[in-house]
Structures are given as structure tokens and as C-alpha cells.
């Protein structure tokens, strides 16, 4: 059985199971992994674009203190089953600690929208609104924390996309939706 809504209580419980003190976004393990991951990309054009997006994000939001915990890394309706309030998750290969709280919930909704609604700007904007509301309601994050969390998520997902396709002999096709253009729009809003 797949769920249309993210199982917020279960996502919150997992995230808080490895809760740490608040850290600046720049000091999180995720930030360190993003920096190293970007530098390891073999395609210089992709590496430069993602590094620029990471640099802008850190220059504008790197000092925002975020609550830190863990995430499954690919919590989506098709990687789980449930019965009542019990949930069984599989595909834990992207599990990580030292990440801003809430990444699983925003990923859950992003992937649902990508799969069932498409990847155009209108759907991206819907995701930003819904993810913002979800982070506010589930973790009571303030606006700067929400922005830092959303951009950290987008950077991680784009890095994952590029790494997963580096060995593709056809090259790396542009990511449709939730790509660098959305990161650019969100960082531009920061001023």
C-alpha cells in the first residue's frame, strides 16, 4: 500500500533518533559531504555549476543554525509499506546522519510530485510551498532554517543525480525539475 501523504510522525521519529545540537548549515556533515562530492565529479562543467550553487547557498545560508539528525535518504511511497501506524522501510543505501531535520519529508513530497505531476516550474513552486508548510508543521522550523533545509536537500539530490549518471556513456542529460534552475531561483530570493 502506498501513502499519498508523508508519514510525518514516523519521519520525525527517525530524524530525531540521531538528534544533535543545532549546527550552522556550513558545519553539518551534509555540508562537508556536499563539498567533497562536488569536487569528486569528473565532468568539469557539471562540477563548476554545482560548486557555484553550493557556494552561493553557503554564502547566504551557511551560518543559519539548523536542527540536525538523520534521514533514510530515499523515503518515498514505493520504498515502504505500512499497516496502521507501523511502517516498514527498505533501500537504506542513502541513510545519513548529520543532516538538517526534515529532509525525508521534503524528499517524499518532491518525488511524489515528480512522478505524478511532472517537473515544470509550476510543480516545483507547489513543492516549495508544500515542503515549507510541512517543515513548519512537523519540525516548527523558522523561515531561514526552512530555506537552508530546502537548499541543502536540492544540492544533495542534484549531486546524487550527477554521481549516479557519471558513468553513463551517453553523458549526463540535464535534470528535469528540482535542478540548478530551482536552486538559482531560491537563492536569488534570498537577496
Task: Give a description of the structure.
The radius of gyration is 16 Å and the shape is globular. It contains seven helices and five strands; from the N terminus they run αβααββββαααα. It is α+β, with helices and mostly antiparallel strands and 191 residues long. A hairpin with a 2-residue loop joins strand 3 and strand 4 (86-89). It has helices at residues 8-16, 29-40, 44-61, 103-116, 121-139, 143-165, 180-188; strands at residues 20-24, 65-71, 80-83, 86-89, 96-100. The strands form two sheets. The protein has a three-stranded antiparallel beta sheet. The termini are far apart. Helix 6 (143-165) runs antiparallel to helix 7 (180-188).
Topology overview:
Layout: H1 8-16, E1 20-24, H2 29-40, H3 44-61, E2 65-71, E3 80-83, E4 86-89, E5 96-100, H4 103-116, H5 121-139, H6 143-165, H7 180-188
Antiparallel strand pairs: 1-2, 2-5, 3-4
Structure in a nutshell:
This protein has 191 residues and is α+β, with helices and mostly antiparallel strands.
Amino acid at each position: 500500500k502506498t501513502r499519498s501523504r508523508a508519514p510525518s510522525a514516523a519521519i520525525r521519529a527517525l530524524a530525531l533518533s540521531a538528534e544533535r545540537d543545532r549546527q550552522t548549515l556550513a558545519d553539518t556533515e551534509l555540508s562537508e559531504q556536499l563539498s567533497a562530492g562536488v569536487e569528486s565529479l569528473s565532468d568539469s562543467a557539471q562540477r563548476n555549476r554545482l560548486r557555484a550553487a553550493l557556494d552561493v547557498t553557503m554564502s547566504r545560508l551557511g551560518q543559519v543554525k539548523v536542527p540536525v539528525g538523520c534521514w533514510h535518504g530515499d523515503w518515498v511511497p514505493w520504498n515502504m509499506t505500512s499497516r496502521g501506524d507501523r511502517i516498514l522501510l527498505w533501500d537504506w543505501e542513502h541513510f545519513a546522519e548529520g543532516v538538517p531535520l526534515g529532509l525525508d519529508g521534503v524528499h517524499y513530497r518532491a518525488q511524489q510530485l515528480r512522478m505524478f505531476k511532472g517537473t515544470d516550474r509550476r510543480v516545483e513552486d507547489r513543492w516549495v510551498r508544500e515542503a515549507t508548510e510541512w517543515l513548519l508543521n512537523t519540525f516548527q522550523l523558522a523561515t531561514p532554517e526552512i530555506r537552508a533545509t530546502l537548499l541543502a536537500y536540492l544540492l544533495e539530490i542534484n549531486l546524487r543525480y550527477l554521481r549516479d549518471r557519471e558513468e553513463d556513456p551517453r553523458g549526463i542529460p540535464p535534470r528535469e525539475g528540482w535542478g540548478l534552475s530551482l536552486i538559482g531561483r531560491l537563492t536569488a530570493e534570498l537577496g
